[in-house]
């Protein structure tokens, strides 16, 4: 091979490697190495709605899935980062579209859902045109949108400006917060109470925001194990405290109305981070206080 051709090939390979490294740095750091490219934490190509200020800085995990798409030899992440660049938390496909749709698009969505409910009524053997069911498809479509309103909520909107610097490093607990959610396996309700605690690292969150975070995550199709973890990890991302603990107790209608049909059964889940996980005495104190 001609030496000049070999030099060109080597230069081309080096440039490709450099471009790949720059792209990976852009994705990891959230900044561009090219002067012609600018990006913000609230960029959203799917929406023209006004963006709320992002109080969360994207971490390396936030874009790890994008990086892994560049390398097909690696397995994709099982779970995305808890807070994405728009402030949504573990968004589903279509989250941004639902949040930003126009009034006409919302009505079209309700009409489509109502038609699907009417089909279900017919399939179970009901007369969808009888008086008691005439408006049921529309009612249920609106109810389901309310049951899943957490998909439209952003962590930035929920937390807003309720973060405060405070010289407090003792345990903070809000207990017995009512939660209502839908089991993603059978689309029937589960409901119960959640207790949330954290040890501040000289930074506290407005108490009502703990309940609002629990509400945002619960108003989605869920499993209790994931719901418990999402609340804890999101709070840990927001505050970077010394520790976070979440305990949830709920009754699942999929175990009461069907299946094993055990009305008295309760499911308890917990998730601990920081000192609550590493220090048995701290964990024991929290568990005794939320009983």
Structure description:
This protein has 291 residues and is α+β, with helices and mostly antiparallel strands. The chain is 43% helix and 17% strand. It contains 11 helices and 7 strands. Helix 4 crosses helix 5 (136-147) and helix 7 runs antiparallel to helix 8. The termini are far apart. Residues 24-80 have low confidence and may be disordered.
The N- to C-terminal Cα distance equals 78 Å
Shape: globular
**Radius of gyration from the alpha-carbon trace, in angstroms:** 24 Å
Count of alpha and pi helical runs = 11
Tell me the β content: 15-25%
Largest sheet features:
5 strands, mixed
Looking across the biggest beta sheet, what order are the strands in?
5-2-3-6-7
Q: Helix share of residues?
A: 40-55%
| Uncertain parts | 24-80
SS-based class? alpha+beta
Total number of strands: 7
Mean pLDDT: 79
Order of helices and strands: HHHHHHEEEEHEHEHEHH
């Amino acid at each position: 091979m001609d030496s000049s051709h070999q030099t060109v090939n080597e230069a081309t390979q080096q440039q490709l490697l450099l471009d790949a490294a720059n792209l990976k740095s852009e994705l990891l750091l959230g900044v561009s190495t090219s002067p012609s490219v600018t990006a913000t934490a609230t960029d959203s190509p799917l929406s023209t709605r006004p963006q709320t200020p992002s109080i969360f800085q994207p971490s390396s995990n936030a874009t790890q899935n994008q990086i892994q798409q560049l390398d097909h030899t690696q397995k994709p992440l099982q779970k995305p980062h808890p807070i994405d660049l728009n402030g949504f938390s573990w968004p589903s496909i279509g989250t941004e579209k639902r949040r930003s749709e126009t009034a006409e698009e919302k009505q079209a969505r309700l009409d489509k859902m109502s038609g699907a409910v009417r089909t279900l009524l017919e399939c179970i053997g009901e007369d969808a045109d009888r008086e008691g069911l005439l408006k049921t498809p529309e009612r249920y479509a609106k109810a389901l949108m309310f049951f899943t309103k957490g998909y439209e909520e952003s962590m930035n909107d929920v937390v807003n400006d309720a973060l405060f610097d405070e010289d407090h490093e003792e345990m903070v607990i809000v207990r017995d917060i009512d939660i209502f959610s839908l089991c993603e396996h059978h689309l029937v309700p589960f409901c119960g109470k959640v207790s949330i605690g954290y040890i501040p690292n000289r930074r506290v969150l407005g108490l009502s925001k703990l309940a609002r975070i629990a509400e945002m995550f619960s108003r989605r199709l869920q499993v209790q194990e994931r719901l418990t973890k999402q609340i804890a990890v999101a709070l840990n991302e927001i505050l970077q405290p010394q520790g976070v603990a979440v305990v949830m107790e709920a009754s699942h209608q999929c175990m009461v109305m069907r299946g094993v049909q055990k009305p008295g059964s309760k499911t308890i889940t917990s998730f601990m981070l920081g000192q609550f996980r590493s220090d048995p005495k701290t964990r024991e104190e929290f568990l005794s206080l939320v009983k």
